[in-house]
Design brief:
Layout: H1 4-31, H2 43-55, H3 64-80, H4 83-93, H5 104-132, H6 147-179, H7 205-229, H8 237-246, H9 260-270, H10 302-310, H11 316-320, H12 322-325, H13 332-353, H14 363-366, H15 370-374, H16 381-385, H17 392-405, H18 412-424
Bound molecules: iron/sulfur cluster (SF4) (2 copies).
The site of one iron/sulfur cluster has 15 residues, from α12, α16 and α17.
Length: 441
């Protein structure tokens, strides 16, 4: 009978971690649906980028208020969760504050966690005010209606509740320590909860134990729910920002990749000894001509798909985008959100049918329209400003390549220019022979 809470705890823990692991595997499977791209070069520089951008949040602080608040909430939340280690050990073995033997160090840790919990709470309230009272424009764009808006708020409520539970748990524990209750050894420093604790003056020992245990259980269950919520939320970036910044593009700013399929075609044309019937690429079916550009998520590479899962929906890209600023339909944030939604749809299709069954949909037209794609000026501002090294531009370019090379569906102005380049070697509608006519004037 005395072991029932321990058994219950182990069951909750296994279920929470098991479900999370199952969903992480789905994310990895979905990202692997993308085409291969080699990002195994320059490991040193990649680690440096990851440390600087994901851990150091160097791009976040370009907007200092949001940046500093984000650092407080992010690092505070992560550090406080070191406490979870103690909760897990206590839960499994039925102990209480197992690390109390650390003495002064334990007091320092618990004291620091409390201060951080308070700062996280304040930071989260300010974030909530920015979103819902000040109504910052980028959080109210059309793509932020419905679930994305609620998702942004849910996570703030989650953190407020978790921090409150942590502080109330400590406050009731402090009361029990003062009363000398069995099991509640004197340990820890409580710089914040000592001010909450007087609220419980006069409560019986039993009522305090019920309060402390309730906070303890709801806190750990809340953390497991939070962990599993990540999969359904933009907050997956808490984890994915690290691989995403590591595998980011190291090419100079704005440099576009050559299309591999076109390079191969040109090499075939230029090389008289090339075998036109050589084995197809790994991701190409026998006899199927290679596709130019991307019309669906499986035509994008795995880094682009990782980008889509990592997008924080912060909207910095959209607020910097000249096309969006001048009222065009394009929002680079929406490009990333659409890519992720379509990728999830593809993954669900595979889960349901065992393998992908054509659903008559694709990223192009069903999610992203040509009008959005052609509104892009390819200025690179979205890439430059993104705090987690995402490139909406690379997806836009790959989808445009599909429109031009597979569908000949470029806007007429562009078609004229391309015809001119083909015929005259220049974008203007003049014969090469007339080039020097200006000198006759
Ligand atoms: S590259 Fe395109 S999408 Fe990105 S900011 Fe410039 S115009 Fe907007
Ligand atoms: S692409 Fe980057 S800047 Fe744009 S919304 Fe996503 S995380 Fe923010």
């Amino acid at each position: 009978m005395q072991y029932i809470p321990n058994i219950l705890f182990i069951l909750v823990l296994v279920a929470g971690i098991g479900y999370f692991t199952k969903n992480v595997r789905k994310v990895i499977r979905n990202i692997r649906l993308g085409k291969d791209v080699d990002r195994s070069d320059n490991k040193g520089e990649r680690f440096k980028n990851m440390a600087r951008i994901a851990l150091g949040q160097s791009k976040m602080v370009r907007r200092p208020v949001a940046g500093i608040l984000h650092i407080v909430v992010y690092l505070g939340f992560i550090i406080i969760n070191i406490e979870v280690l103690e909760i897990i050990i206590d839960g499994i073995f039925g102990t209480h504050r197992i690390f109390a033997f650390l003495g002064g160090l334990y007091d320092f840790l618990i004291g620091s966690f409390e201060i951080l919990a308070f700062l996280v709470f304040v930071g989260v309230v300010l974030f909530w005010i920015r979103r819902n009272v000040i109504k910052l424009k980028r959080f109210w764009n059309p793509e932020m209606k419905g679930w994305p808006k609620n998702d942004g708020n849910f996570i703030l409520y989650f953190e407020m509740v978790l921090m409150t539970l942590f502080l109330v748990m400590n406050a009731s524990d402090l009361q029990l320590q003062t009363l000398g209750a069995d099991h509640y050894i004197k340990a820890g420093a409580y710089p914040i909860s000592q001010y909450i604790s007087p609220l419980f003056n006069g409560m019986s020992e039993t009522a305090l134990i019920v309060l402390e245990r309730a906070c303890w259980w709801v806190h750990i269950i809340g953390i497991l729910v939070f962990l599993n919520y990540l999969y359904f939320s933009k907050h997956l970036h808490i984890l994915l920002a690290f691989p995403n910044t590591y595998y980011g593009d190291l090419n100079p700013k704005g440099e576009l990749d050559n299309l591999e399929a076109v390079t191969k075609e040109v090499q075939l044309m230029m090389d008289p000894s090339a075998d036109p019937f050589a084995a197809p690429a790994d991701d190409q079916q026998e006899g199927e001509p290679e596709k130019f550009g991307a019309s669906d998520v499986a035509d994008l590479n795995w880094v682009q798909l990782l980008n889509a899962y990592t997008c924080t929906e912060c909207g910095r890209c959209t607020s910097e985008c000249p096309a969006n600023q001048t009222g065009k339909k394009l929002s680079p944030r929406k490009i990333m959100m659409d890519t992720r939604d379509r990728l999830k749809e593809l993954g669900d299709n595979i889960d349901k049918n065992g393998s992908f069954v054509d659903d008559g949909k694709q990223l192009l037209n069903d999610y992203i329209t040509p009008e959005e794609l052609w509104a892009c000026t390819s200025c690179n501002a979205c890439v430059e400003t993104c705090p987690v090294s995402i490139s909406p531009l690379s997806i836009i370019i790959d989808m445009r390549r599909y429109l031009v090379m597979e569908q000949s569906a470029a806007p007429s102005d562009l078609n004229n220019m391309m015809t001119n380049i083909e015929n005259n070697g220049a974008p203007w509608p003049f014969n090469q022979m007339d080039r020097l006519n200006w000198s006759n004037e």
